[in-house]
Amino acid sequence: MKTTLKKTMAALSAAAVVAASAAVMAVPTSAAGVSLTMGSKTLTLAELKAANYQVTLPIGVTDSINSVGFGVTLGEGLTYVDLEASVKKATCLAATNDAGNFVFAPFAYATVPLKAVSGQIAEIKVKVSESAKPGDTFTLSIDGKDSDGVETSYKNGETGETGVPGSGAGTITIVEDPTEPTTEATTAAPTATPVAATTTTAKVATPTKPAKSTSSPKTGDALPVAGVAVAVAVIGGVALVAKKRK
After folding, report:
1. In terms of Cα–Cα distance, which of 167, 160, 119, 161 is closest to 31?
2. With DSSP H G I counted as helix, E B as strand and the rest as coil, what are the percentages for the chain, rounded to 5?
3. Which residue, among 67, 121, 69, has the nearest Cα to 94 in the 3D structure?
4. Quick one: three-class SS letters along 76-142?
5. H-state helical runs in 109-224
6. d(CA 129, CA 79)
7. What CA–CA distances, in Å, run from 67 to 15, 16, 32, 38, 170?
8. How many CB atoms lie within 10 A of CB 45?
9. Contact between residue 83 and residue 103 where contact means Cβ atoms under 8 Å apart
10. Is 239 left (phi over 0), alpha (psi -120 to 50) or beta?
11. Is the pLDDT of residue 1 over 50?
12. Cβ neighbours, 10 Å, residue 213
């Protein structure tokens, strides 16, 4: 009997703890001062195919927290693949609905001494429809609600601040693959081979030496003075030889 009673009390205590935890998550104690953020990415169709149509986006918070519960709604053309914490020693266990288009994940981070974290806290991987084409945009939204629409809360363990986190959204955009410049083959017109100009050089007649004249000098032609002296000497010599022979 005592054993049965103890088991019953233990079960009730556990149920009470779960109910109290759920109440704390659902009812904020202060106005929201932290918002959830979802990253965006732009990639070409070739890059998307190379990644097997899977894309990873960061999830973050705008201020320091130690815990937060968030839900991610995937737009048409996206399905859930994976979600995990980006912070060491943090816990982030995700659960998805049957359709695979909604993911809920409670995030918790505790250290000794207690410290809060900010910025990126997790990352989600989704698969884009294989019918995606350049120009398509796929959306993801994030807020502090579970699958039933019940609000959750964040908490900063250092300051004690709590509240319902603000929402955010992200996109995956597919763009055209860059086109390589096409090089058109250009055919150059054949260049005419220049015809060498033919130059005809006129032959210049070589002047011929005038023939020696055998005729006697014309009357009035005068011999040079030196020539006259030589002639006189020669004549005198000849006359002298002739005289001696006589």
Report:
1. 161
2. 20, 35, 45
3. 69
4. CCEEEEEEEECCCCEEECCEECCCCCEEEEEEEECCCCCCCEEEEEEEEEEEECCCCCCCCEEEEEE
5. none
6. 8
7. 21, 21, 14, 17, 22
8. 16
9. yes
10. alpha
11. no
12. 8
The pLDDT of 56-80, averaged and rounded, is: 97
d(CA 42, CA 48): 10
Measured CA to CA, the distance from residue 108 to residue 90 in angstroms comes to 6
Q: Tell the residue number behind the tokens 């000794």, with chain if given.
A: 112
**116 token code pair:** 């809060």
Q: Tens digit of pLDDT for each residue in 4-51?
A: 323 333 333 333 333 333 333 333 334 459 999 999 999 999 999 999
Q: Which two tokens stand for residue 100?
A: 């695979």
